[in-house]
């Protein structure tokens, strides 16, 4: 049972005699911070007291009188200024634990309303190697898909590959000028990556070089402005220091304002300076290398040439289409290797190219609806509440990212008719999605709930974007390999191996390293709230201490090790099956606080999943698993399982061990993370 939801519903009823709008007050239920105050606590009476003009304790007395939670709780208590404390009855916990033992999904009930939910995730731009930024959408999207499926929704996953954009213009240009047909044929993936990197470097170089003179101009302007502002601030400060008492307050305020403006102008100077530095670095990177410099001199206008190659491909130029068809399968092989390693798959992979023929139709539909405006030769849609329009076709006839998203939405409605679509995409695209969603209504698609599930950036250990020394992004595969080899050192070091009986052979060690290493990277990503940036620190990720997959996986391995020992001691093959067959509900009783605390943690599994689903926030499930693993560790230290002669103690403890294992296994599985039978 979802206890929080149960309490909210009960409070809703109890509060309805006091207010017409009980829902927000009913929602003020929290897990109690200290077991002293019970298990859950409501602080609704404080705010409600203010609203109805009564003392909070008085309101609390009325609420408690009306509150019907006897099926789950002891008599509610009023504490302090008007908190209501709830303590779950032990019999309810043992009943629930007993129910979980017999339940396929560890007590998690299916959602009340089954929905069809389409999840658009991963969606990398192929033709360039996958980097660490790609991990977020892939891992968060897969976890969301698993969560929604777990509670019975119909989920359709679609990898909206960027397989039709400028990145193909880049490798086509690269191939035509620097490529080698034999190498592409024999060793395509690294060769295409090399061509992408070289051409892209030339683009960056050309753009950086061209931007330098504009940037110098900007710097001059910014410096002049900063000088004026700083003088004004000086003058304002002087005025303030001399002001008569009656005017001193206003003058001080003016001076503060001027000083803030001067600081802002100074920051602007620093920002332009850093832009110049990064442009110079790009120029230097090429010019310091004579071979590269010679290539750059021979190819003075790569950015425009790449756009032309892309446009030719879109227009159906035979040579470029043939190259696209030749390259695309190799690009897919490359990303599929990463997906295999991550254990991620999709129901559909309908890339941007799939929608190419539908793009003119989008413009036509919008035209017919009278939504388009021509602006500077481009076709635009002006939307209420947005400063800039959404461009759907450029002056040269090219379509844009937004046009494809509109065509995709039409297709998805026709073919899948989902209730909801989740777009698991970087926060930096939030403006695009706001505009795009605003178009759904005039297009007659307001019955689909469109959600941008956005996420922040992965940073290096130093808090800056992760780059190699040469400035390119670090490939995802090398990070995965690094995590796996570190996991091997942590989980299979000689000291640990010496304690293993039977000995752990190389195969099992490698399997553990892979499960722990990949799990560590996924968990680190999922355990941060998705909208925050986080630092990629492999050492911390694979550590056995802290909120890591390794810690949670280790707890699981401990439960299995105990079950193996019990099996040997009692000569039973399958301990969980034996337990289910030989235990009655009244044989589950908590005599130690650690037993009760662990049971309560386990019963909260459904609540954690519901909360993670409601906020599209897998980190809530991570936090839950971490708390449960900690409760298990306390239990493990305090309560012996082996060698118990008392049938109640033995069964209760076994039930806790079995269910801890199952909840962790299923919880991690939802997050896309595996477990190991021993570690
Ligand atoms: N390929 C895009 C990128 O890498 C992400 C696509 C997200 N999905 C979408 N329907 N726009 O930025």
UniProtKB/TrEMBL annotation:
Which GO biological process annotations does it have? arginyl-tRNA aminoacylation
Q: Name one GO molecular function term.
A: arginine-tRNA ligase activity
- InterPro entries per the record? aa-tRNA-synth_I_CS, Arg-tRNA-ligase, Arg-tRNA-synth_N, Arg-tRNA-synth_N_sf, ArgRS_core, DALR_anticod-bd, Rossmann-like_a/b/a_fold, tRNAsynth_Ia_anticodon-bd
* Main EC class the enzyme belongs to: ligase
**What family does the database annotate?**
Belongs to the class-I aminoacyl-tRNA synthetase family.
HAMAP family referenced in this protein's UniProt entry, alphabetically: Arg_tRNA_synth
Q: What is this protein called?
A: Arginine--tRNA ligase
Native source species? Allorhodopirellula solitaria
- Gene name, please? argS
